[in-house]
Structure formats: structure tokens, C-alpha cells
Design brief:
4 strands; 39% helix; Double Stranded RNA Binding Domain; 151 residues; 3 helices; elongated; alpha+beta
Length: 151
């Protein structure tokens, strides 16, 4: 019953979910590096697919990192746990007019094993997960800004 009342209230106040399944006309400029390619692909997926540079909005992202930091050491002084961190700054424009600017960062810890293959796999998974989180943060802010700008 509570959910039904909340639903009626939200409909009455013209509530519209931010991710309502509509295609957002945002061009994501190429981002340098392998991780930049992954971030761009993830952002394009969030915005409803890849758009050309004639789109209404233009998003430029500068990706920094990954930066790793030791989080735990064993008794011999070797690393057993590390953290990978990525930081991205972005600018959203409508034509030549800047409508949003921001900086987001994300980090994830991973196990640093003594086996090289396992360590590389753990590191690569941590980087991909961090890129997904960055993509979520940036896309939510950008979609909110474009929605606010249109209304």
C-alpha cells in the first residue's frame, strides 16, 4: 500500500527517472590509453550508444592513473594487498557553451599474490571495476546536467 501511495505521489509531481531509457545525444570524445578506450565505451553505453561529434552535447574526459598504493604487507615486508585508483576530469559542452565541469575518482583494492599471472588478473579486474564505477559517476552527473539544462 505504501508503495502504491508513493507511486501516485511521484506521478502527480511529474517525477521522471534520470535513466528513463531515452537516448541522450552526447558525443564522448576519444580518451587516450587502453583504460580511456574502456571508459569511453562504458560511457557511450550509458548514453544510449555512440554518437558522432555533431551531437547536441560534447563530453571531453581526461583520465589519470591508474595509481597503485600498498595497503597491506606480510611479515617479510612483501605486499599482499594493493589499491588501484583512477581519476577523471570532464567538461560537458553544448556547442561552445560549457554547462558542466567536474572531477571524479574511484578506487578498488585487490590481492597482490606471489604468482605473476594471478596478480595481473587481480589487478586488471580491479582496473576494469574502477572504470565501471567512474563511468557510473560521470554518466549520472552528465545526464543530470543535460536534463537540468534542457528544462
Amino acid at each position: 500500500m505504501k508503495k502504491f501511495v508513493l507511486f501516485l505521489f511521484l506521478i502527480g509531481c511529474n517525477f521522471k527517472p534520470i535513466f528513463s531509457g531515452t537516448d541522450t545525444d552526447i558525443y564522448v570524445a576519444p580518451i587516450s590509453g587502453i583504460n580511456g578506450i574502456e571508459l569511453r565505451n562504458s560511457l557511450n553505453a550509458k548514453f544510449g550508444g555512440m554518437h558522432d561529434n555533431g551531437a547536441k552535447y560534447n563530453l571531453t574526459v581526461n583520465l589519470n592513473g591508474p595509481v597503485t598504493q600498498y595497503k597491506a604487507l606480510d611479515k617479510a615486508g612483501g605486499a599482499t594487498w594493493q589499491e588501484v585508483k583512477l581519476t577523471a576530469s570532464y567538461v560537458l559542452k553544448d556547442g561552445n557553451k560549457e554547462i558542466a565541469r567536474g572531477k571524479e575518482s574511484a578506487a578498488e583494492s585487490y590481492t597482490f599474490a606471489s604468482y605473476l599471472v594471478a596478480s595481473n588478473a587481480s589487478y586488471n579486474n580491479a582496473v576494469l571495476n574502477t572504470i565501471r564505477v567512474l563511468s557510473e559517476k560521470i554518466s549520472m552527473r552528465v545526464i543530470a546536467e543535460t536534463d537540468k539544462y534542457q528544462n
